[in-house]
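pinned: reference chain
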Amino acid sequence: MSKLQNFLKGLIKENPVLVLVLGTCPTLAISTSVIAAFGMGIAATAVLILSNMAISAIRKIVPDPVRIPCYIVVIAGFVTVVELVMEAYAFSLYQSLGVYLSLIVVNCIILGRAEMYASKHGVVDSAIDGAGMGIGFTLAICAMAAIRETLGCGTSFPAFCAAIAASDAGGSLMKKANARKLTKSAPAARKNDMRMPKHSASTPPKSGPTTPPAVSTPCMMPRQRPSFAAGA
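pinned: its structure tokens
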């Protein structure tokens, strides 16, 4: 089996949700919102890839009677790393997933791929298998969440895009994009400033005809003749 076939089998032919019917607990619990479903899919994909690589690397060292506990310990370590990263950079998504993020440790998809594939193949093939299974799981759970959220609330992808833009990670990406735009527009602004004529303090810029300021003059009252008393 080629590497491309190994990757594509997890999308359709051996989809963990639609064909193998694994991981139904988080699928049914998180698929009420596209945002939560997408976060769960990304977290499960990261754990699948990392755990498959680690288990494939130690498959010849671990004794056969204790392989399942060792696999669970390795998976739990990567789940903790993903949980801490999500708590630091996507706190709102971390809160929406809740306890189901920690329950990735006992997800049948991850433990099943570790037992069925990673313990029998190389590191590269195991990583490709984990990526294909993780993306297939993400697509399936997001499709179910889109249908359920559309039927239940009437909003799915517009709310998803708005929430991604408003989240911590999305906000940092938007800030970086705006900073790049400002950096690209800075040379053009400098050229425009160089083309504009500069005026010194001694020679003010010429402008159109101006009217002289009105000079206020004191009010001229008419002079009155002095009145003389009679008989003076």
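why pinned: The CA atoms of residues 63 and 70 lie 9 Å apart. Residues 216-221 have pLDDT under 50 and may be disordered.
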